[in-house]
Design a protein that fits this description.
The chain has about 220 residues and is mainly α. It has eight helices and four strands, in the order βααααβββαααα.
Protein backbone atom coordinates (compact mmCIF):
# COMPACT_ATOMS: atom_id res chain seq x y z
CA UNK A 1 0.00 0.00 0.00
CA UNK A 2 1.44 3.37 -1.01
CA UNK A 3 -0.08 6.74 -0.18
CA UNK A 4 2.06 8.74 -2.58
CA UNK A 5 2.06 6.52 -5.68
CA UNK A 6 5.66 5.51 -5.03
CA UNK A 7 6.86 1.95 -4.90
CA UNK A 8 7.30 1.59 -1.11
CA UNK A 9 10.05 -0.94 -1.66
CA UNK A 10 12.56 0.01 -4.30
CA UNK A 11 12.94 3.62 -3.19
CA UNK A 12 12.32 3.38 0.53
CA UNK A 13 14.10 0.25 1.68
CA UNK A 14 17.81 -0.02 2.28
CA UNK A 15 19.74 -2.98 3.62
CA UNK A 16 18.97 -4.08 7.16
CA UNK A 17 20.38 -1.69 9.74
CA UNK A 18 22.66 -2.81 12.53
CA UNK A 19 21.50 -1.42 15.86
CA UNK A 20 24.11 -1.74 18.58
CA UNK A 21 24.27 1.32 20.82
CA UNK A 22 22.19 1.57 23.98
CA UNK A 23 20.51 4.82 22.95
CA UNK A 24 18.97 3.43 19.75
CA UNK A 25 18.15 0.09 21.37
CA UNK A 26 16.21 1.85 24.12
CA UNK A 27 14.45 4.02 21.54
CA UNK A 28 13.09 0.91 19.81
CA UNK A 29 12.03 -0.75 23.06
CA UNK A 30 8.53 0.69 23.15
CA UNK A 31 5.32 -1.24 22.34
CA UNK A 32 3.78 1.51 20.21
CA UNK A 33 6.96 2.01 18.19
CA UNK A 34 7.35 -1.71 17.59
CA UNK A 35 3.69 -1.91 16.55
CA UNK A 36 4.16 0.97 14.11
CA UNK A 37 7.27 -0.64 12.64
CA UNK A 38 5.37 -3.89 12.18
CA UNK A 39 2.52 -2.20 10.32
CA UNK A 40 4.87 -0.18 8.11
CA UNK A 41 6.72 -3.35 7.14
CA UNK A 42 3.45 -5.09 6.23
CA UNK A 43 1.50 -2.24 4.66
CA UNK A 44 4.03 0.26 3.36
CA UNK A 45 3.71 4.02 3.97
CA UNK A 46 1.12 5.04 6.56
CA UNK A 47 -0.16 8.30 7.97
CA UNK A 48 -0.65 8.68 11.70
CA UNK A 49 -4.41 8.43 11.14
CA UNK A 50 -4.12 5.20 9.14
CA UNK A 51 -1.69 3.73 11.66
CA UNK A 52 -4.08 4.67 14.46
CA UNK A 53 -6.78 2.46 12.97
CA UNK A 54 -4.37 -0.45 12.65
CA UNK A 55 -2.84 -0.42 16.13
CA UNK A 56 -5.65 1.12 18.18
CA UNK A 57 -3.72 4.15 19.43
CA UNK A 58 -4.75 7.82 18.98
CA UNK A 59 -3.40 9.57 15.86
CA UNK A 60 -1.54 12.05 18.07
CA UNK A 61 0.28 9.16 19.76
CA UNK A 62 1.18 7.59 16.43
CA UNK A 63 2.39 10.92 15.08
CA UNK A 64 4.63 11.48 18.11
CA UNK A 65 6.21 8.04 17.88
CA UNK A 66 6.70 8.32 14.12
CA UNK A 67 8.70 11.48 14.78
CA UNK A 68 10.73 9.71 17.45
CA UNK A 69 11.48 6.80 15.11
CA UNK A 70 12.52 9.30 12.44
CA UNK A 71 14.89 10.90 14.95
CA UNK A 72 16.73 7.59 15.18
CA UNK A 73 16.71 6.93 11.45
CA UNK A 74 14.17 4.11 11.51
CA UNK A 75 11.44 5.83 9.47
CA UNK A 76 11.29 8.81 7.17
CA UNK A 77 8.69 11.01 5.50
CA UNK A 78 7.31 9.37 2.38
CA UNK A 79 6.35 12.65 0.72
CA UNK A 80 3.03 14.41 0.45
CA UNK A 81 0.62 15.47 3.17
CA UNK A 82 1.08 17.63 6.23
CA UNK A 83 0.73 17.10 9.94
CA UNK A 84 -1.05 13.84 10.77
CA UNK A 85 -1.87 13.38 7.06
CA UNK A 86 1.87 13.02 6.37
CA UNK A 87 2.80 9.47 5.33
CA UNK A 88 5.79 7.73 6.89
CA UNK A 89 7.77 4.79 5.61
CA UNK A 90 10.55 2.49 6.76
CA UNK A 91 14.15 3.25 5.84
CA UNK A 92 15.21 -0.40 6.00
CA UNK A 93 13.85 -3.92 5.51
CA UNK A 94 14.78 -4.89 9.04
CA UNK A 95 17.30 -4.72 11.86
CA UNK A 96 20.30 -6.66 13.00
CA UNK A 97 20.34 -6.30 16.77
CA UNK A 98 23.92 -6.67 17.97
CA UNK A 99 24.75 -4.88 21.18
CA UNK A 100 28.07 -3.21 21.72
CA UNK A 101 30.36 -4.69 24.35
CA UNK A 102 29.41 -2.26 27.12
CA UNK A 103 26.96 -3.56 29.77
CA UNK A 104 24.50 -0.71 29.14
CA UNK A 105 24.05 -1.72 25.50
CA UNK A 106 23.75 -5.39 26.37
CA UNK A 107 21.02 -4.68 28.93
CA UNK A 108 19.19 -2.58 26.34
CA UNK A 109 19.53 -5.38 23.77
CA UNK A 110 18.03 -7.91 26.19
CA UNK A 111 15.09 -5.62 26.93
CA UNK A 112 14.38 -5.11 23.22
CA UNK A 113 14.58 -8.81 22.44
CA UNK A 114 12.20 -9.59 25.29
CA UNK A 115 9.63 -7.06 24.14
CA UNK A 116 9.79 -8.17 20.51
CA UNK A 117 9.45 -11.84 21.43
CA UNK A 118 6.58 -11.13 23.82
CA UNK A 119 4.69 -9.41 21.01
CA UNK A 120 5.41 -12.29 18.66
CA UNK A 121 4.26 -14.87 21.20
CA UNK A 122 1.08 -12.84 21.66
CA UNK A 123 0.56 -12.98 17.88
CA UNK A 124 0.98 -16.76 18.10
CA UNK A 125 -1.68 -16.92 20.82
CA UNK A 126 -3.97 -14.98 18.50
CA UNK A 127 -3.32 -17.59 15.80
CA UNK A 128 -4.19 -20.41 18.19
CA UNK A 129 -7.41 -18.65 19.15
CA UNK A 130 -8.47 -17.88 15.59
CA UNK A 131 -7.05 -20.65 13.41
CA UNK A 132 -10.37 -22.51 13.34
CA UNK A 133 -11.61 -19.75 11.04
CA UNK A 134 -8.81 -20.27 8.51
CA UNK A 135 -9.14 -22.58 5.47
CA UNK A 136 -8.12 -26.17 6.22
CA UNK A 137 -5.18 -26.10 3.85
CA UNK A 138 -3.67 -23.07 5.62
CA UNK A 139 -4.19 -24.75 9.00
CA UNK A 140 -2.41 -27.88 7.74
CA UNK A 141 0.44 -25.88 6.19
CA UNK A 142 1.18 -24.01 9.41
CA UNK A 143 3.70 -25.76 11.64
CA UNK A 144 4.39 -26.00 15.36
CA UNK A 145 7.56 -27.97 15.99
CA UNK A 146 10.41 -28.07 18.46
CA UNK A 147 13.69 -29.99 18.25
CA UNK A 148 16.63 -30.62 20.54
CA UNK A 149 19.98 -31.28 18.88
CA UNK A 150 23.33 -32.11 20.39
CA UNK A 151 25.64 -29.65 18.66
CA UNK A 152 29.05 -28.14 19.04
CA UNK A 153 29.24 -24.35 18.94
CA UNK A 154 30.73 -24.62 15.44
CA UNK A 155 27.76 -26.72 14.30
CA UNK A 156 25.29 -24.26 15.79
CA UNK A 157 27.04 -21.42 13.99
CA UNK A 158 26.85 -23.35 10.71
CA UNK A 159 23.18 -24.23 11.25
CA UNK A 160 22.37 -20.56 11.76
CA UNK A 161 24.25 -19.64 8.58
CA UNK A 162 22.52 -22.38 6.58
CA UNK A 163 19.02 -21.38 7.70
CA UNK A 164 19.75 -17.72 7.08
CA UNK A 165 20.98 -18.53 3.57
CA UNK A 166 17.69 -20.31 2.82
CA UNK A 167 15.33 -17.76 4.35
CA UNK A 168 16.84 -14.33 3.76
CA UNK A 169 16.58 -14.20 -0.06
CA UNK A 170 12.85 -14.94 0.10
CA UNK A 171 12.35 -12.45 2.93
CA UNK A 172 14.32 -9.64 1.33
CA UNK A 173 12.86 -10.04 -2.15
CA UNK A 174 9.20 -10.20 -1.20
CA UNK A 175 9.35 -7.84 1.75
CA UNK A 176 11.12 -5.13 -0.19
CA UNK A 177 9.14 -5.48 -3.44
CA UNK A 178 5.39 -6.20 -3.17
CA UNK A 179 5.26 -7.00 -6.89
CA UNK A 180 7.29 -10.14 -6.15
CA UNK A 181 4.56 -11.53 -3.88
CA UNK A 182 2.53 -14.16 -5.75
CA UNK A 183 -1.28 -13.95 -5.89
CA UNK A 184 -2.86 -15.50 -2.82
CA UNK A 185 0.16 -14.92 -0.58
CA UNK A 186 -0.28 -13.55 2.92
CA UNK A 187 2.24 -12.54 5.61
CA UNK A 188 3.51 -15.65 7.41
CA UNK A 189 5.74 -15.48 10.48
CA UNK A 190 8.46 -18.09 10.88
CA UNK A 191 10.07 -17.67 14.28
CA UNK A 192 13.45 -19.34 14.78
CA UNK A 193 14.90 -19.62 18.27
CA UNK A 194 18.06 -21.61 18.88
CA UNK A 195 19.95 -21.63 22.17
CA UNK A 196 21.78 -24.08 24.46
CA UNK A 197 19.72 -25.47 27.33
CA UNK A 198 22.76 -26.59 29.32
CA UNK A 199 26.07 -24.82 29.93
CA UNK A 200 29.01 -26.17 27.91
CA UNK A 201 31.91 -27.48 29.94
CA UNK A 202 33.97 -24.41 29.12
CA UNK A 203 31.01 -22.08 29.43
CA UNK A 204 32.10 -20.50 32.70
CA UNK A 205 35.39 -19.41 31.21
CA UNK A 206 33.74 -17.99 28.09
CA UNK A 207 30.64 -16.48 29.68
CA UNK A 208 29.96 -12.87 28.79
CA UNK A 209 30.10 -10.01 31.28
CA UNK A 210 27.28 -9.94 33.78
CA UNK A 211 26.17 -13.51 33.04
CA UNK A 212 24.19 -14.92 35.94
CA UNK A 213 21.74 -17.70 36.66
CA UNK A 214 21.43 -21.17 35.18
CA UNK A 215 19.55 -22.33 32.10
CA UNK A 216 16.07 -23.66 32.66
Amino acid sequence: MSLDNQDPASEAFAEAQTVSDARRLRALTHPVRLALIGKLVLHGPLTAAAASELIGEPPSTCSFHFRQLAKYGVVEEAGGGKGRAKPWRMTTTGFSITAAEDPESQIAEDALHRMVREQQIEDYRTWLNTRAGYPQRWRDAADDSAYVFHLTVEELEQLTRDLTAILMPLFEKRMADPSKRPPGSVPVRLLLLSHPIEYPEDGEAEAGPGATGTPG
